[in-house]
Design goal:
It is a single chain. The chain is an alpha/beta fold. Helices cover 42% and strands 9% of the residues. The protein is built from 15 helices and 8 strands. A 6-stranded parallel sheet has the order 1-8-5-4-2-3, with helices on both faces. Strands 6-7 form a two-stranded antiparallel sheet. Helix 6 runs antiparallel to helix 7, helix 6 packs parallel to helix 11 and helix 8 crosses helix 13. The protein is globular. The chain starts with 23 loop residues before the first strand and ends in a 7-residue tail after the last helix. Bound molecules: zinc ion. The site of zinc ion has 6 residues, from helix 5 and helix 9.
Length: 438
């Protein structure tokens, strides 16, 4: 079957893709190696980032013990906000600037790792708050040089943030999520210890696990790198390159693992094998989306979380309403893949098969629906919200959701077909509700 994803070269399109491998140490117990890795990276005075809940739990205690054992001086910053904001980034950057640190360690989920990335950036290269933020919301200024070393230790089955040069936050004044993206932001080392997943609440496993699934699915179906305009010079090739043969490898295995283990990991808290497999899927999907880039479900998620009114999920600190990142992504996903299916049916069917869907008799024109139906079945089985309506929105919000998502060009332009304003509004309408009841 002819498909755009066979990476055929196009006139004016890029002919190359880049691979900049991640440094990863993965295995049960590796959190105990943290001090030694930090010392080898030249750290003497370490800023240790975490959030208030994690600060009292075992992974942080183990990280501190390991740093102390290696003779390193560590100052704890436990104020990272779950779903960070420009304000919380600023507070973290002030801590980093004033502490005179020569290295960073983050122990937590995507929010903690992203906060450490931003603090490291603004302490290493001070600038106005919006200087490095993606255009058009920020100035999109290039990061001028290397940052201090950063060891990222994820504690969810997770975001993959340990493998990417992206930091995402809510810009409070605009009620929208945006981010900073630069290869310089990527942690120097990802230290991934599957044992940390054993004590996670099911709702946290669900939110991070569906995020992983969507990272893999979006990177796999992203616009092929050959369809992206060739950069004017090599150094201008974007970090989100589009789907390519390298990112495909991680996506396929991450999809297979998510298909097999995600629902198990959420519905049975004693299924430790499923949780450990899921954190490996998260790593693979993180490598893939850090290289290829996500598209519509993530682009649409920014306004779903940014405009939150009163949604308070179980298992999260109940200080303020939030739509956790993974929820805000997956509620868009079935509608998004129905929309992108026609752009490359073969890819969508391959992805559905990797997830465990029966695709033998599926026609190319059904590809988007096959992916969507399988996702919806998984969402129902794992108790996820029923679409955008399930996290507190109604048809009257479609205009605001659309306006919040439309500026997210880095993500929207990485979709395999063009997405206009009307398309976005149609996507939110389609994402409002996926099943009866619930
Ligand atoms: Zn994500």
């Amino acid at each position: 079957m002819a498909c755009c994803h066979h990476f055929a070269l196009h006139e004016g399109g890029d002919a190359a893709f880049a691979v900049d491998p991640n440094a990863i140490v993965f295995g049960p117990g590796v959190l105990g190696e943290l001090g030694d890795h930090a010392r080898i990276l030249g750290m003497r005075r370490v800023a240790l980032f975490t959030d208030p809940r994690l600060a009292r739990l075992e992974p942080v205690a183990r990280a501190r013990a390991s740093l102390a054992e290696a003779g390193l001086d560590a100052a704890l910053y436990a104020e990272c906000r779950v779903e960070p904001t420009d304000e919380s980034f600023r507070a973290a950057a002030a801590f980093a600037r004033e502490g005179g640190f020569d290295g960073y360690v983050s122990v937590g989920g995507g929010s903690v790792m992203d906060t450490a990335k931003a603090a490291n950036l603004y302490a290493s290269h001070p600038a106005e708050p919006l200087a490095y933020v993606n255009a058009p919301i920020g100035e999109g200024r290039a990061v001028p040089g290397p940052l201090a070393p950063h060891v990222a230790c994820p504690t969810t089955c997770g975001t993959g943030s340990e493998c990417t040069g992206i930091a995402v936050f809510d810009l409070l004044a605009m009620k929208a999520k945006t981010g900073i993206a630069s290869p310089r932001l990527r942690p120097t080392l990802a230290l991934i210890d599957p044992l940390v997943t054993h004590s996670l609440p099911a709702s946290v496993v669900a939110a991070s696990g569906f995020d992983v699934l969507s990272h893999a699915l979006e990177s796999y179906t992203a616009r092929p790198f050959t369809a992206r305009p060739a950069p004017a010079r090599a150094s201008a090739r974007p970090m989100s390159q589009g789907a390519n043969p390298w990112s495909d490898i991680g996506c396929r295995e991450a999809l297979r693992l998510a298909g097999r283990y995600l629902v198990r990991a959420v519905t049975d808290e004693s299924d430790l094998e499923a949780r450990e497999r899921l954190i490996w899927a998260a790593t693979l999907a993180g490598i893939a989306f850090g290289n290829a880039g996500c598209h519509l479900p993530h682009g649409m998620s920014y306004s779903v979380s940014g405009l939150v009114r009163d949604f308070r999920p179980a298992g999260y600190p109940d200080t303020a309403p939030i739509v956790p990142h993974g929820y805000s992504v997956i509620v868009n996903a079935p509608a998004a893949f129905r929309f992108t299916g026609p752009a490359c049916p073969a890819r969508h069917l391959e992805a559905a098969r990797a997830l465990g869907a029966e695709v033998r008799d599926a026609a190319p024109e059904d590809a988007g629906a096959v992916v969507a139906d399988h996702l919806i079945a998984m969402m129902k089985a794992a108790g996820m919200p029923n679409g955008v309506g399930g996290v507190g929105y109604g048809p009257a919000d479609i205009g605001a959701l659309t306006e919040g998502a439309f500026p997210q060009r880095r993500l929207l332009d990485n979709a395999p077909r063009a997405v206009g304003r009307d398309d976005l509004a149609g996507l939110y309408a389609d994402a409002m509700r996926y099943w009866e009841g619930g």
